[in-house]
Amino acid sequence: LRFDEKVRVVVFKSEVKGVFCAGADLKERAKMDDAEVGHFVKRLRNLMDEIAALPVPTIAAIDGHALGGGLELALACDLRVAASSAKMGLIETTRGLLPGAGGTQRLPRCVGIGLAKELIFTGRQIDGQQAFSMGLVNHTVPQNNEGDAAYQRALTLAKEILPQAPFAVKMGKLAINRGMEVDIASGMAIEGMCYAQNIPTRDRQEGMAAFREKRPPQFIGK
């Protein structure tokens, strides 16, 4: 996906009704020794980092339970859409663990330090509406009979992104992600570098021409 230029948006969904991702199989984990657990969690963390590093926008469609590593997967995405009935939580402390695949870092960046600490310290599960009220998800929708309401809303969101200039969207994502990790002056410099890369693109020229000619732009991602 990273190197496929035809890919504009990636949507993560589950094929299991009522579950987005239930996290690690604790029965499997119980059979591992300490070294194996450490290796397993490192691989899991690397996977989440790879998802977060995808150059195109990513959307998690949370139609059911997103617990532990399942919520960490959703947090690795750029945007999240949840059914109001979905259950989410970093529940690791209820099992004698702590989030180890990015949860302690991505949750506070998403909802703020205070709320993140409360959710992680308590291991509390929240529903889609609560998640929306604290900014954990971008949208919440009532669940439908097919059990894919969040997925359908995620597709609608993806279709809003699709017509936009692909390279500009990628640079926007890069500027935001890198800029959020540094002070604002450094962030401005990062934005400037990303903007400079976008200036010579054919899509920028097409966008300007389309505006002058009062027509929809036809972006090609170059």
From TrEMBL:
Key words of the record: Lyase
CDD domains to which the protein is assigned, alphabetical: crotonase-like
GO biological process: fatty acid beta-oxidation
Family annotation (Gene3D superfamilies): 2-enoyl-CoA Hydratase, Chain A, domain 1, Lyase 2-enoyl-coa Hydratase, Chain A, domain 2
GO molecular function, one term: enoyl-CoA hydratase activity
InterPro entries on file: ClpP/crotonase-like_dom_sf, Enoyl-CoA_hyd/isom_CS, Enoyl-CoA_hydra/iso, Enoyl-CoA_hydra_C
GO cellular component: mitochondrion
Family: Belongs to the enoyl-CoA hydratase/isomerase family.
Protein name: Enoyl-CoA hydratase domain-containing protein 2, mitochondrial
Gene source species: Fulmarus glacialis
Lineage: Eukaryota, Metazoa, Chordata, Craniata, Vertebrata
